[in-house]
Design a protein that fits this description.
disordered N terminus, 289 residues, eight-stranded mixed β-sheet, six-stranded mixed β-sheet, alpha/beta, globular, 18% strand, Metallo-beta-lactamase, Chain A
Length: 289
Amino acid sequence: MTVQIQLSEIDHARREDHGDGAWSIAPDLGYLRLAIVNVVFFGAPGGGDRNWVLIDTGLPTSRSSILAVAEKRFGTNARPAAIILTHRHFDHVGPVLDLANKWDVPVFAHPLERPYLDGTTSYPPPDPWVGGGLMALLSPLFPRGPIDLGSRLEILPGDGSIPGMPGWQWLHTPGHAPGHISLWREEDGSLIVGDAFITTGQESVYEVAVQDLEMHGPPRYFTPDWEAAERSVKQLAALKPRMVISGHGAAAAGAGMRQALESLAERFREFAVPPKLKFVREPATVPNS
């Protein structure tokens, strides 16, 4: 079930195509849809070397598309100052190590995601019986093992700041993953939420292909801790963002978006939590070092 807000009331964020392959939704903010997932580019177009940041890296097949957009958007051989990961799920980290090595940049993540990024631990298994369609049923086939970023991996600063992104702060928004983060800029109400909530359905092949603009909770099959997920959505709704970019679906804006997000927060268990969870398990935790 989705939040029952008329889709015409959930506005697409105003976006412009500057010919670099990404949708620009603010002077220093753009995103690129790569098959089923979005990556986000922060930084002024034409900013040059080390003057931009990449948030998430999409699927393993996303490398060439990211490189092409980066070159057109920021300049030939313009490297980012950092890569920021909202979480480690396979569709958000695809070519991250390859890109980090090519650009010689650090990759920042929350400390609770470290075990999944340093080769130590796998995520818990998905729940294919959450309903909604074929994507959920196929979820046990999706990669969930650890990757090892080695010396490229760095932990986000404890003060909430984000390297290379002045004016932004990271927020711990667990539930979909233990160390999931969202990125918030209070000045203009911009919010990058990863998969804390999403703006299109993700459980069926049809939803993934059509990408109707709707308000959903996190992808059900890969969300092990629904209580934490609910708290995270309430936390984000309380910010009253003006524009949101989620990991799946188009960027959304306006009063309709805020109303839909508030409805999701208020009625999260009705709208987001699967009615039946076949797998009963403890939320993912970080093993003792």
